[in-house]
Amino acid sequence: MKRLLLLSPILILTLAACAPTKPQQQSTIPAPAAAMERTVPQGRVIPVTAELWKFTPNVIEAKKGEVVTLQITGVSGTHGFSVPDLGINETIFMGKTVNIPLPTDRAGTFSFACSIQCGSGHSEMKGQIVITE
Ligand code: CUA
């Protein structure tokens, strides 16, 4: 019995030493990543990449009323995907993917551009979203 009592503090210390690993692992999950993937892709998914210094494709086409998700993946650098006329402005981090529902209620051509100063080719990062009737 006495041996058990002596052993138990050692056990408790051992457990205590091991315990912190779990909370630490949880805290290493960056909050922005969780937020970026909050949107579940719906309808047709259009993969787009953002890199130094271009969006691919730079012309994105959809039909009016079509359900479309833009799935933008950061390849290099940090960029902003901004479509002012559609109320979109998302930050695209390298190695992360953002799902953006594309509003298709209006036909038209909507310009997009990088909205974060990302270096010498920043001003070349632009394109168009074309929504046809
Ligand atoms: Cu990419 Cu600015």
Notable traits:
single chain, alpha+beta, 4-stranded mixed β-sheet, 23% helix, binds dinuclear copper ion
Report a brief summary of the structure.
The chain has 133 residues and is of the alpha+beta class. 23% of the residues lie in helices and 40% in strands. Strand 1 (44-51) and strand 2 (54-56) form a beta hairpin.
Describe it for me?
By secondary structure, this protein is an alpha+beta fold. Helices cover 23% and strands 40% of the residues. It has 3 helices and 9 strands. It is globular, with a radius of gyration of 23 Å. The protein starts with a helix and ends with a strand. About 20% of the residues have low confidence. The site of dinuclear copper ion (CUA) has 9 residues, from loops.
Q: How far apart, in Å, are the first and last alpha carbons?
A: 83 Å
Give the amount of beta strand, in percent: 35-45%
Q: Averaged pLDDT, please? A: 82
Counting H and I runs of at least 4 residues, what is the number of helices? 3
Give, in order, the helices and strands.
HHHEEEEEEEEE
Poorly predicted regions are 4-29
List how many beta strands DSSP finds. 9
Ligands present:
dinuclear copper ion
The general outline is globular
Physical arrangement of strands within the biggest beta sheet: 3-9-8-5-6
- Largest pleated sheet: 5 strands, mixed
Please give the radius of gyration in angstroms. 23 Å
Task: Give the class from helix and strand content and strand pairing.
Answer: alpha+beta
Give the % helix.
10-25%
